[in-house]
Amino acid sequence: MASEILKNIGRFVFLVLLQGLILNEVNLWQGMAIPYLYILFLLMLPLETPRWLELLIGLVLGLTIDMFTNTLGIHASACVLIAYIRPLYLKGIAPRDGYEYGQRPGIQDFGLTWFIKYAAVLILIHHLWLFFVEVYSFKGFFNTFLRVVLSTIFTLLLTIISQYFIVTKRSSRQI
C-alpha cells in the first residue's frame, strides 16, 4: 500500500515536471497541437480510488499545471471534469465480469483496443473543455476544434507510447 502511494507520488511529480518544463514548450503546426500528457496520471489511477479522492487529485493536478502555465484554473477545471466523468465512463465500458481488484486502466491489464476507447474519450473531453474555456467563445469554432482534434491525437499517441514504458509485475491471473 505504502509503495503504491510512493509510486503514484513519483508518477505525479514526473508527469507534472515533464509537462511543465518540456511538453508545454512543444507546439506543433504553429501551436495547433499541444501534448497534455499530464492527464495520464488521472487516467492511470487505480480503479478502486474513491471518487472524492479522484476529484481532489484532479484539482491538485490541474492547479499544479496552472501554476506552470499561468492559466488561472483552466487546467484545474478540465481535470476535475475528467475526474468526475471517469468513474461513470469506466462503468459504461466495464468488462462483462467487472473489474478485478488491483487492476489499473492500462494496456497491460485490458489491451490496446480497450485502452484506446478509454483514453481517447477522456482525452477528447478534457481537450474540448480546456480549449473552449481558454478561448471563452465559439468565435473561431472550427479553428479551436481543429486544435482540440490535433492535440487529442498527439496526446493519445504519447499516452499509448508511454504505456509501453510502464512496467508492472504480472500476477498469476490470466488476462
Automatic annotation (TrEMBL):
One of its GO terms (biological process) is regulation of cell shape. Keywords: Cell membrane, Cell shape, Membrane, Transmembrane, Transmembrane helix. The chain crosses the membrane at residues 12-43, 55-85, 114-132, 144-167. The keyword Cell membrane applies. Pfam families: MreD (PF04093). This is Rod shape-determining protein MreD. It is found in: Cell membrane. It comes from the Bacteria. It comes from Cryomorpha ignava. GO terms for cellular component: plasma membrane.
